[in-house]
């Protein structure tokens, strides 16, 4: 029987994962080292290795937690709700996550850009199954005449691309907008709401 972690153990584990998120999102998996993570965490390397046996184990723990968080807004899309309102709520939630969790977004993007060597099974498994479930919901809305005729999965891909861009390309977005628009998110939300409303309204 596994003994429950003490408060200090839980805190140290969270500290390591927070430090690893900082390092992995900036350096990528290949560029990150255990020494860097230990330094950011303020722990010795042997102490870090007490909690995680390898860089791969830390990365896997981060990605596992991240995917669950990342999928929650899509899970909450309600088949019984008003279609356009449900999709716009999803857009807003994804944009909010880009604003509040940019490092997590970049961590996921880096993993996918490398061919998803550590997340392939999750992408073709849980993620693909959830997208198929929600695509079926969208197809039902379209068939009932409650939503414009679009390709459901490509609609979801478009939402991912247009919201996560603000996290993954934050420097580019802010550099192009300049000091006149220091916070891109309010106008981004208005723009995306108009865009998807025009695309999807019957």
Automatic annotation (TrEMBL):
Top-rank taxon: Bacteria
Matches recorded under InterPro entries: Homeodomain-like_sf, HTH-type_TetR-like_transc_reg, HTH_TetR, Tet_transcr_reg_TetR-rel_C_sf, Tscrpt_reg_YcdC_C
DNA-binding region: 33-52
Residues in the signal sequence: none
Domain spans labelled HTH tetR-type: 10-70
SUPFAM superfamilies per record: Homeodomain-like, Tetracyclin repressor-like, C-terminal domain
Pfam families: TetR_C_3 (PF08362), TetR_N (PF00440)
Keywords: DNA-binding
Protein name per the record: TetR family transcriptional regulator C-terminal domain-containing protein
């Amino acid at each position: 029987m596994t003994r429950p972690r003490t408060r200090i153990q839980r805190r140290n584990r969270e500290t390591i994962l927070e430090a690893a998120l900082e390092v992995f999102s900036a350096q990528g998996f290949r560029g990150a080292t255990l020494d860097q993570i230990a330094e950011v965490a303020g722990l010795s390397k042997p102490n870090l290795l007490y909690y995680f046996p390898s860089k791969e184990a830390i990365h896997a723990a981060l990605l596992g937690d991240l995917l669950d968080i990342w999928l929650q807004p899509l899970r909450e899309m309600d088949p019984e709700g008003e279609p356009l309102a449900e999709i716009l709520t999803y857009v807003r939630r994804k944009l909010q996550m880009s604003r509040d969790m940019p490092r997590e977004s970049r961590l996921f993007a880096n993993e996918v850009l490398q061919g998803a060597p550590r997340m392939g099974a999750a992408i073709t498994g849980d993620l693909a199954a959830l997208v198929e479930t929600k695509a079926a919901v969208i197809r039902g809305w379209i068939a009932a005449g409650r939503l414009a005729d679009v390709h459901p999965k490509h609609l979801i891909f478009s939402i991912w691309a247009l919201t996560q861009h603000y996290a993954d390309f934050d420097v580019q977005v802010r550099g192009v907008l300049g000091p006149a628009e220091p916070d891109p998110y309010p106008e981004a939300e208005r723009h995306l709401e108009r865009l998807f409303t025009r695309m999807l309204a019957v």
